[in-house]
Structure formats: C-alpha cells, structure tokens
Amino acid sequence: MAKFLICTISVIGHVSPALPIARELVDRGHQVYWYTGSEFQAKVESTGARFIPAVDISPEWMARRNALEGVAQLKFDLKYGFIDAAVRQVKDLTEILRDFPADVMLADFCFLGAAWIHEQGGPPWAGFSVSAIAFSSRDTAPFGLGIKPDASAFGQFRNRGLNWLTDRVIFKEVTAYMNQVRAELGLPPSQTSFFNIISPFLHLVGSVPEFEYPRRDLPDRVHFVGPLLGNIATEFTPPDWWEELKGDLPVIHVTQGTITTDPERLIVPTLRALASENVLVVATIFARSLESILPDGIPANARIASFIPYSQLLPHVDVMITNGGFNGLQMALANGIPVIGAGKSEDKPEICARIEWLGVGIDLKTDKPTPEQIRSAIGKILADRSYQHRAQDLQRTISEYDAPSTAATLLEQLAQSHPGISQIK
After folding, report:
1. CA 287 → CA 64, 232, 257, 329, distances in Å?
2. Which helix (H) or strand (E) holds 205?
3. Which of 30, 303, 319, 386 is the Cys-Cys partner for 25 at CB 3.0 to 4.6 Å?
4. 147 and 141 in contact (C-beta within 8 Å)?
5. What are the tens digits of pLDDT across the range 261-319?
6. Highest mean pLDDT among 110-124, 140-154, 284-298
7. How far apart are alpha carbons 115 and 95 in whole angstroms?
8. Residue 196 burial by CB count (10 A; 0-12/13-18/19+): exposed, middle or buried?
9. Cα separation of 359 and 284, whole Å?
10. What is the DSSP string of 249-302?
11. How many CB atoms neighbour CB 214 within 10 A?
12. What is the pLDDT of residues 160-209, one digit of tens each?
C-alpha cells in the first residue's frame, strides 16, 4: 500500500473536495496523512486520515483582506496569503516527510508548498482544482474576468492580448514577489505566473468536461473526475419546519458560502424580493443575525438556518441563488437545480459566467443585486423550463462519474509510476 500526504490551505472550499478522495484512499488500505488548519481536524479524521495541524488563518489577516476589493484583494491573497504561506508549508513538509516518506503529495491549487518541496527533492505531487480551471489558454480569456469564450479570429486575438496584459502587467508584481520568496528558499526564479502553476504529473478537476470552456491546449495530465461533493456523513437534526419543504410551493435556496458572508449583499435582498411571492425561501447564514438588519422581521415565507447538509436540502430545492461558490454550484448541478449567480469577488465572476454559458441559470453580473433583479430572475427561471432541463442534462452527465474512485485510481497510478523516494535530508 502507498503513502499519501494531502495538503490544503485552511479554507473550507479547499478542504471539502479532498474529503471523498481521502476517504476512498483510506478505504483502499493506503496510509493517508493530511496537513491543514486545526478547525478542520474533525472533518479530516472522519475520513480515516491522520490529521497534521498547519498554521490557521488569523482573524487579523482576514480583516485586512476583507478591507480590499477586486484586483487589490486578489493580489493580497496571492502575495500575503498563498505565497507567504508556502514558506511555512515548506518548513513543515520537510519535517513531516522525514517521519512519513509519502509516495505522493496531493495539494489544492493554491497550496504552493507541495510544488516547492518537490523542487527541493520531495516526492511527486498531484494538484486538484477548487474552482473552474485557472490555467491560461489561447482559447480563453484570463481567469477571473468572467469573460465567456469566443472561437472567432477576434476572440483568439482578444485572448492573446488579455493573457499578455494579465501576466506581464497586472500580475507582474505578484510573479516578482513569488520569485523573491522562492530565492529565500534557495529556489531559482520562475517565469510561470501563479495561475499557471500545474503539477508535471497529475491534476484533478472536480467537475465534468461539459462544465468547462473548450480548450485545445489543455495538458493531457489534466483529468476531469466529476464533482468531488464531499458527502461525509454528519449528524443533522431537521428543524421544525422541515416538512414544509415537501409541500407544493417552489423552494428557493439562497447562500453566500463561508467567505463573503455579509448578508446584506445577497441574502437580505433575496428575502425582501420574495417576501410577497408564493414560494418558500431557505437561507443559510453564518454571520450576523438577520433580525438586526430586517426591522420588519424575517418574512413569513422564509426559513433560516446556520447549516443544513446539502445532501439533505438540495433534493427539495427548485432554484438556488448563490454568490458563485464552486463547490455549491457543483452540488446544485448534481441535483439538477437551476441557479442564479451574483458574485464578483475571488473566483466568483468565472463561476457565475459559466452558469449563464451553460444555460443552467442567470448571471446577475453583480454581487449586490437589487430585490427587483432577484425577483425578475426567479420569475424567469420558474417560467422558462429550459433552465431546469439543461441543469437536469448536466445532472445525468455527472451521475455517470465516480469522482472519488477515479481520483484514487489516478493517484495510485502516479504512486506506482513515480516512486516518491524523498531526497530531503
């Protein structure tokens, strides 16, 4: 049996996709260690993997990044989040690999430490996506702009120009900063931008090919394994209103995920938009109490919860409203649910653009929609069954994939073909 070391940054959207992979590897008899933040210890151990603590993201750091928006926030994340974190990751992985000489490391797309420790003599590493594919391509505009593909001659020209501008101008300082940090670790400078760092061995995409824009230059080592839904069993006591989900009213679920949690951006306008509509609204909220910002109280047709397992909730949902979380969208599509997207931060413009491109819903092209925009979009989706039909088409496609099994098999093949004999002293 092989030894696998999973490495993820301490964010739920980066941890969740690896949960079913870890469980599958453990069930196959492999040894699995997992290096991530302490708040995820219970989730890691629920898979049977051994938890190894990493440094948690501090509230002070989150406050600094949340004070920024747009490109400034993204640059902050890349430089002072992912790149700076790689220094401690390399130090910790050096110690871990001495005691646990892994055959293969599996790291999320933003965890640079696995790539850098491999350059220093560590074992081979595989990557996995936590969002839409970010690698640049002649067939796509740069990641993050939310621009749909264009196969025309003009589209190719547009892509070349925007990719050059992104790499050589907008994110030039990020690459320079990364090389400064690499030099401190004794690594040579790299001409590869952050978004183009890809394992030379294997990269797993937690979705289906139909979800992604067509790319003629996608490397052969990139494999679509299907959505990594992370359905690890959790205890759940249904709320008193649970039986209402089985009634005749359309069920609208609204969520903002766990990073961009200000309810006044999406949840509050949704509740206001649908307060007088003949629907049942289910909102999950992780932050402030809604009573403090809804002076007239929570609408009679709204139900609020801090957490509901999607495996329990989504089979009852008719439309999801989201700020563009990748994992949430994959779960919605796996349940054949049409989606309304309203997100502009992090990777969310890309996810929302794909909602519209796929025909599974509507991209509101803002992260602060008005109640009127939301009400109109809901009415359109409920009236036009083509959105549901397209979502159900993708649901059938997704059902043909066994993501944990495929991912584990590919990792086993990597372990067999590239024995991870660590040269770290």
Report:
1. 18, 24, 10, 21
2. strand 202-205
3. 30
4. yes
5. 678 889 999 999 999 999 999 998 865 566 666 767 889 999 988 888 888 999 999 99
6. 110-124
7. 16
8. middle
9. 25
10. SPEEEEE-TTTS--TTTTHHHHHHHHTTSSSEEEEE-SSS-GGGT-TT-S-TTE
11. 11
12. 999 999 988 999 999 999 999 999 999 999 988 999 999 999 999 999 99
* Share above pLDDT 70 across residues of the chain, in percent, rounded to a whole number: 94
Q: Is the per-residue pLDDT at 386 higher than 70?
A: yes
- Alpha-carbon distance of 332 to 394, in angstroms, equals 10
pLDDT given for residue 287 in this prediction:
55
Q: Burial, 176: exposed, middle or buried (Cβ in 10 Å; 0-12, 13-18, 19+)? A: exposed
- DSSP code, position 49: P
Q: Which two tokens stand for residue 3?
A: 């030894």
Which amino acid belongs to residue 126? A
Residue that has been written with the tokens 């790291």 in this structure: 107
User: Dihedral of CA 421/422/423/425: which sign?
Assistant: negative
Task: Please state at what angle helix 84-99 crosses helix 172-184, rounded to 10 degrees.
Answer: 40
Encoded tokens for 106? 């599996």
- Using alpha carbons, select from 351, 327, 329 the residue that is nearest to residue 13: 327
At residue 121, what is the residue type? G
